[in-house]
Amino acid sequence: MKQYHSKHTAVLSTRGFYTILTVCALIIAASAWVLWSDATAPAEDETQASLPIVTPAESLPDLSEDTPVLSEETGDADEPDADQEPDGAAPEQADDTAAETAPAPVETVSAPIYVRPVAGAVITPFSGDELLFQPTFGDWRVHTGTDFAAEAGETVLALTDGTVQQVVEDGLYGTCVTLSHDADLTSTYCGITDVRVAEGQAVAAGEAIGTVAETIDAEAALGPHLHVEAARAGTPVDVLELLGESEIE
Known about the structure:
ten-stranded antiparallel β-sheet, alpha+beta
């Protein structure tokens, strides 16, 4: 009986040793796990603290505002064009541009129409600087006008459109009517009677201004005729050139 108790005591002692050893190992493992958890916990907290908290409302950009857009080529933000007009103002701007670029209308100016004062042939031409024999006075002198053959009482027509500048009585050339025209041109008709126009009156090309008189004292040797002079800015010009006649009929 005493021997059995000794063996049983030895067995219990051996089991108690291993039990104590196992408990110590578990305590060591538990302590190690606690120490490792405490060491890693701050790092995880810092990682979580460094990450921004993003809510669903902030995850997408607000497209209702003017958000700068990065350019694919340069990476720079494309700023809104300060000169860009709202969509509603685009038609008005286009209209203004069209009005500025549209060419101004070109006024068509018709060439003046010249009409023979009378139908008769030229009996004394315009001489310019050359001297012509003057049968009435029997001498040589320049002839600044053109003499047209005409019957007394024949109607005298305006050379071209113009305005009556003056109606005067000349001691040598009788009644003379002067018309002013465009481009500083004037025309004067001498040796007429029955004047049908007044100073300041507008007349058209071919409109009657009077009739041929019986004679012109300065050119009485030529019989009834019409003496017509033309000048541009005060310089005598050939009436036949205005009429486009190259030869004396």
